[in-house]
Amino acid sequence: MASLQDLRRRITSVRNTRKITKAMELVAGARLRRAQSRIEEMRPYADRMLELIGGTATAAGSFRNLPLMQRREDVRSVAIVVVTGDRGLAGPFNGQVLRRAFELERQARGEGREVVWLAVGRKGSSTLRFRRYEPAGQWTGFSDKPAYSDAQAIGHKVAELYENEDADRVVLVYNRFESALVQRVTTTDLLPIPEDLLREPERAGAPDAGPARRPDFFFEPEPDQILKRLLPVYLETEIYRALLESAAAFLASQMAAMRNASKNAGELIDTLTLQLNRARQAEITQEILEVVAGADALTQ
Is a pLDDT exceeding 70 seen at residue 249? Predict the structure, then answer.
């Protein structure tokens, strides 16, 4: 049985740990509110970008000659972009994304395809290096507060791999933020860009709606040239949206993990305090018994 001194030290240690986890919970909660605001500000821009691309694609008519739209019948290699955090202490946040990415890897290799890795976040990079994989691209240091320039760097590398035929398909795996308690692993096909996304929004999902109406405005330069410039921006926008979603999901997961850690620390303190009281009571009882035994010995 632990001594009174050991129990007091453990209680003090757990209390100090609870202070740290509580502080981290509060910090993550404050940063989460800012991350949610960034997502809400980003969504209208992303939706408007999709509408613009849809209208331009309708005016262009044919866009299959664009590099980012070319579909290859023989898919020999798949690029997996896995978005993780730079830090841990966030519950299952990093593990569930990596598990999903490795499931995609096993599926691709089972179909006889090569896998090209691109890692966003230190946790993903370190895990891939531990498994002796050499990522084609690595980006770290911004997982909890990404900037659009970070999405541009990733998008440029992804487009380069696809245009050089080093990858015939590009998949993005990340945690999508739904609420402070729910984050879901999401898999998105980045390249080739699905053609149905380039239809006008009101016509998407309606193949029997007849021929699309040409927009009532002029394009300068030609619509296909505009579309060629817009597609990389669309790719960067989708990556940026995923980075923002992942950042908010990380903070939400960290806040929940620290809340659970603080709760567990409180329960452990209660348990240790009960053990301390029992040990102190046993010690007092033992001292009383020794005094009574000594008094009996003197009277005999």
Answer: yes
